[in-house]
């Protein structure tokens, strides 16, 4: 197994515990959300590249809410990663992995969190030096029971599960020794964001920030 390429990101995730995963309608919305989440104690934010506003949102959050550590998610190609990093993304997240992404990531100035679901995918990435991985989609893929089953044979590999995680089951994931943090959108519900109820977002973030890893 090669050197741990993203061990530093693992430490940041362990400190964050909960990473809001945001799909934004506008850059302004992103800035307001980042401020509300930060006020509630969540400082590590993933902006998914699923909307046209994502890149500008990353740029503005980095400029206007510098205390937040903003990264880019749903990165599918090296070109998308380059654009996100140019906008100020401080980490890159992919739902899976491709040879092109892994090769390009070796030159990136920011850490990379590739995705894995199967034991083979996790082993392949660990062999390349990635010992902290995204587990997506966590719920449909088997949830906490699946991750618990991977813990013994894949000792030394840790996961940040996303997909189907909410306030009701986040603690179950975090209780696992091989889960370093969880990601989710439950701290920024679409209806609440549409209503611009930032106080509610801060309240949800504050509750999420009280979650602690149980397996650590």
Descriptors:
8 strands, alpha/beta, 4-stranded parallel β-sheet, 216 residues, TIM Barrel, 11 helices, two-stranded parallel ribbon
SSE layout and pairing:
Layout: H1 7-16, E1 18-22, H2 27-39, E2 44-48, H3 54-64, E3 69-73, H4 78-87, E4 92-93, H5 99-105, E5 112-113, H6 119-127, E6 132-135, H7 138-141, H8 143-151, E7 158-161, H9 170-174, E8 182-184, H10 190-194, H11 198-209
Parallel strand pairs: 1-2, 1-8, 2-3, 4-5, 6-7
Helix pairs in contact: 2-3, 2-11, 3-4
Characterise the protein shown here.
By secondary structure, this protein is α/β, with parallel strands linked by helices. It has one domain (7-208): Aldolase class I (TIM Barrel, Alpha-Beta Barrel). It is built from eleven helices and eight strands. It has helices at 7-16, 27-39, 54-64, 78-87, 99-105, 119-127, 138-141, 143-151, 170-174, 190-194, 198-209, and strands at 18-22, 44-48, 69-73, 92-93, 112-113, 132-135, 158-161, 182-184. The chain has a four-stranded parallel beta sheet with strand order 3-2-1-8, sandwiched between helices. It has a two-stranded parallel ribbon with strand order 4-5. A two-stranded parallel ribbon has the order 6-7. Helix 2 (27-39) crosses helix 3 and helix 3 runs parallel beside helix 4 (78-87). The protein starts with 6 loop residues before the first helix and ends in a 7-residue tail after the last helix.
């Amino acid at each position: 197994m090669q050197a741990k390429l993203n061990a530093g990101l693992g430490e940041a995730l362990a400190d964050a515990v909960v990473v809001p995963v945001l799909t934004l309608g506008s850059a302004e919305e992103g800035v307001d959300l980042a401020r509300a989440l930060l006020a509630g104690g969540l400082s590590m934010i993933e902006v998914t590249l699923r909307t046209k506003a994502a890149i500008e949102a990353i740029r503005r959050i980095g400029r206007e809410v510098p205390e937040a550590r903003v990264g880019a998610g749903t990165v599918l190609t090296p070109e998308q990663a380059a654009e996100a990093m140019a906008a100020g993304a401080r980490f890159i997240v992919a739902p899976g992995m491709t040879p092109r992404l892994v090769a390009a990531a070796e030159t990136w100035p920011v850490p990379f969190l590739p995705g894995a679901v199967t034991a083979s995918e996790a082993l392949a990435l660990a062999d390349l030096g990635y010992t902290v991985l995204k587990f997506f989609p966590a719920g449909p893929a088997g949830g906490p029971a699946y991750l618990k089953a991977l813990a013994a044979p894949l000792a030394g590999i840790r996961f940040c599960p996303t997909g189907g995680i909410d306030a009701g089951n986040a603690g179950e994931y975090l209780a696992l020794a091989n889960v370093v943090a969880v990601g989710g959108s439950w701290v920024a519900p679409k209806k609440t964001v549409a209503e611009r109820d930032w106080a509610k977002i801060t309240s949800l973030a504050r509750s999420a920030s009280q979650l602690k890893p149980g397996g650590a």
